Amino acid sequence: MTVCLKRAYEPPAGSDGCRVLVDRIWPRGVARDKAAIDLWLKDIAPSTELRKGLHSDTVGWGEFRRAYLAELKQHREELRPLAEQARRGRVTLLFASRDERRNNAVVLKEYLERLGARYS
Length: 120
Description:
single chain, alpha/beta
């Protein structure tokens, strides 16, 4: 299974495979026609309250991770095709956050890898 992470502000590359935007809000300043986004899964992004809590530091990383994993469980069937696609080829999850280590795409990658392993 190949799931990669990349900031939405980085230019597309041929090695990205299927490019999936995983934020609820379109990244500011990113032109839609140049973004080369294959799929926008805004419904699987963290809830507004959870996203705002992480960005304002009222929700710590561990709490965010646990809460977002719980939210993702509600989208299991919706995410299964994405996990299957990642088993067949590369999927790059795109995110806007400046923090490349602590963002929703990191948690989603972990969840997809678990989901994909479960259905292998």
